[in-house]
Amino acid sequence: MKPIKLICFVTGLLVFSAAFAADDAKPDASSVLVQTQLPQRGEIADTLVAYGSAVPTINGGMTLSVPAEGQVMRIAVTPGEAVHTGQVLMEFHLSAAATSTHAQAVSALALAREQQAHTARLLAEQLATRDQKTQADKALSDAQATLDALEHETGSKPQQMLTAPFDGVVSTVPVAQGDRVAAGAPLLTLTRNGGLVVTVGIEPAQRQRLHVGQSVQVETLGDVTAHAGKVVRIDRALNPKTRLIDADVAVSDELLQGEAFRANIEVGRLSGWLAPRDAVLDDEDGAYVFQIAKGKAVRVSVKRVGSDAETSVIDGPLDPQRALVVQGNYQLENGMSVREQPATAGKEQ
Predict the structure, then answer these.
(1) Are strands 159-163 and 82-83 parallel, antiparallel or unpaired?
(2) Residues 69, 174: one domain?
(3) Which of 59, 82, 103, 314 is most solvent-facing, going by the fewest CB within 10 Å?
(4) From the CB of residue 70, how many other CB atoms can be counted at a distance below 10 Å?
(5) Residue 280 — φ and ψ, nearest 5°?
(6) Are residues 178 and 246 in the same domain?
(7) Is 9 domain-assigned?
(8) At 213, which CATH number?
(9) What is the pLDDT of residues 118-135, one digit of tens each?
(10) Are 202 and 196 contacting, i.e. CB atoms less than 8 angstroms apart?
(11) 8: in domain
(12) Percentage of the chain exceeding pLDDT 90
């Protein structure tokens, strides 16, 4: 054989071998690459999801007022402002009528004191009876009680300073500077620090699953900040506005009044086979998963017991020795050839 022909023959042989090797290295085009993991039994929390907002508790707030008519002269705080015990909140001046009533009570006390002293001198000189002395003592006692009651309610000065009785936040200020208000009218509402709960609405059909003391994970809708809490109160009547049953969740962390929350209330535990949510599919025949047997996909019908954000609890005839398909299952059909890749390796890649 001539050298040129020999070179051409060898070159062709090498090209054919390389092409054959390349074809041999290619995976079977009819198989599907999937990620798998062995099925495991376990349990997750059975949660009831509800939505609500942070509001004051029944004893978490206080409305300040003056039991006398008068005028709002100065407001020192604004709604939403944090205040501390003893801080001046508002300046209030009593009306002329309220001031006059106080002055009359002071005069009546002074007069009763003089009459009591005069009667005591007459009794010492045997010019008055003991009954007269008793009546004078009672008149003095009544006048003193009247003045004490007025000063307890309105103070001893026409100018009143309303101060914060505890550390908290100003919720509302329903009056404006210069307003003339009636006796007992609400002037300002405070919410005590730590006096907020998350009130959520529960569907009436779920009422029996809810109990005081159940654990709750409360999440803000904005930045998904989680707070641990517990159910502390459950209504037995529908909220007339929402047509839901209100339930209060106490949280130890500081909350912002009016902030919206999602509450995940743990009402029990769910047991069964644990699988990622994406591993469970549905069609007209119901829920199902795929397991791997000798390189083939095997469809297994299952029943959903429950789920959370990441995991589904299922019930069905799963083989614990066969790998469960957790990704790539949407491309599969029963009996299709597959190539396995462990789920952990897939995440690392």
Answers:
(1) unpaired
(2) yes
(3) 59
(4) 25
(5) -105, 125
(6) no
(7) no
(8) 2.40.30.170
(9) 888 888 888 888 888 888
(10) no
(11) no
(12) 45
Render pLDDT for 127-165 as a digit per residue (tens, 0 to 9): 888 888 888 889 888 888 887 877 776 666 778 889 999
Do 101 and 182 fall into the same domain?
yes
Task: Report whether pLDDT(187) > 80.
Answer: yes
pLDDT, residue 10, reads: 45
pLDDT band at 344 (very low <50, low <70, confident <90, very high): low
Q: Which residue has the tokens 């609890």?
A: 313
Place of tokens 């550390």: 167
Torsion angle of the four alpha carbons 259, 264, 265, 271, in this order, in degrees rounded to the nearest 10? 180
Q: What integer best gives the mean pLDDT of the chain?
A: 84
122 and 52 housed in the same domain: no
| Res 346: pLDDT | 39
DSSP, collapsed to helix, strand or coil, labels residue 122 as helix
How far is the C-alpha of 72 from the C-alpha of 91, rounded, in Å? Answer: 6
Q: Which two tokens stand for residue 267?
A: 């009402």
DSSP H stretches of helix in 26-95? none
Distances in Å between the Cα of 89 and the Cα atoms of 72, 75, 140, 153, 166 are 11, 6, 37, 18, 12
| H/E segment holding residue 111 | helix 96-124
Distance CA 208, CA 281 (A): 31
Higher pLDDT, 20 or 166: 166
Q: Are 210 and 235 in contact (CB under 8 A)?
A: no
- Report residue 187 CA to chain centroid gap: 28
Note the pTM of the prediction, 2 decimals: 0.60
Residues 343 and 338: their CA atoms lie apart, in Å, by: 14
Q: Which domain holds residue 143?
A: 61-191
- 83 and 151 co-located in one domain: yes
Are 255 and 200 within one domain?
Answer: yes
Same domain, 225 and 145: no
Question: What confidence tens digit (pLDDT) does each residue in 227-283 have?
Answer: 899 999 999 999 999 999 999 999 988 888 888 999 999 998 999 999 999 899 999
Question: Tokens 């609500």 map to which residue?
Answer: 52
